[in-house]
Design a protein that fits this description.
The chain is of the alpha/beta class. The protein contains 13 helices and seven strands.
Length: 290
């Protein structure tokens, strides 16, 4: 086998572990054909991923409102939803669910700026960040004790989910749930679209993500630094590596930084990568000296 393709396949198998590990039993309670009441959902951070999720939520009949540091009022107007600049007003708008779609690096500052005393009811808070222990800990420390918390990671985005979410994975952990009806209604957003509903702890997620998502981003960033480009004699293995490089290039370096800084397992994976690279290099050099 092409050695490059062999390396790529090993990384692919690790990614499949995260996507397919311990998929929950059939979610009959979430995918039931019984009508589900529309939820009042407030979204904090209305970048491309939040906009992508919002389109499906609107289609399902949920009532959406958004806030963000940047001005997305025109985009929200096109979607037919309110954009609320003032955080006090946003939290007073009777949300049943507050969905945090901020960047990893900005989460702490955003949460610190939230006037939780403005909440009108016990509220379910959810996040969609690519690391899970960090937002869990930040939110548990800041949220009012009567607020519920579910941590989620949709293992897809605007590109992979552009033709629908069927078969794509949503990881989640019910960290603190009292209102099961609202929590089930939120999860139903993904289950009803055919997502694989994968329940696991935030710690387990971060262990696996360090071995798959972070490692993929690391390799892609290295290849980008090498400025690799297609050649007339590319193998299939190289084509796959180039796809990794191009895919990672579409994400910000802040995301990569967040995957490293706020996933405690990523540091060991970076060390493992360095040790493995040095081991391969030394084997080559030893053969040269034989």
């Amino acid at each position: 086998m092409d050695p490059v393709k062999y390396v790529y396949n090993r990384f692919s198998r690790k990614l499949h572990l995260l996507r397919d590990h311990r998929v929950a039993a059939p979610m009959s309670s979430l995918t039931s054909s019984a009508p589900v009441r529309g939820l009042k959902i407030g979204i904090i951070g209305f970048g491309p991923f939040a906009q992508f999720l919002t389109q499906t939520m609107i289609k399902q009949g949920h009532s959406i409102r958004a806030t963000s540091r940047s001005d997305y009022s025109e985009h929200c107007a096109r979607l037919g939803i309110p954009f609320i600049r003032d955080m006090d007003e946003f939290l007073q708008s009777d949300n049943e669910v507050v969905l945090l779609c901020t960047s990893i690096l900005s989460l702490s500052d955003v949460v610190k700026s939230m006037p939780f005393q403005c909440l009108k009811r016990p509220t379910l808070f959810a996040d969609v960040l690519s690391v899970k222990e960090y937002p869990r800990d930040v939110l548990l420390q800041a949220l009012p004790p009567e607020s519920d918390l579910i941590c989620t990671h949709p293992m897809f985005g605007p590109e992979s989910g552009r033709d629908g979410w069927h078969g794509l994975t949503l990881m989640y952990e019910k960290v603190r749930i009292r209102n099961e009806a609202v929590c089930s209604g939120f999860l139903h957003i993904f289950a009803s679209e055919g997502c694989k509903m994968l329940e696991m702890t935030c710690e387990e997620h971060d262990k696996l993500a360090a071995k798959s998502q972070f490692l993929t981003h690391t390799i892609g960033r290295v290849l980008a630094e090498m400025q690799i480009e297609p050649t007339p004699i590319d193998t299939k293995g190289f084509e796959k590596l180039f796809e990794v490089k191009e895919s990672v290039a579409n994400d910000s370096f802040d995301l990569f930084n967040g995957l490293y800084v706020h996933n405690r397992f990523a540091r060991q994976q970076l060390k493992n990568f360095e040790v493995a690279f040095d081991g391969v290099k030394h084997k080559l050099l030893d053969r040269m000296n034989e």
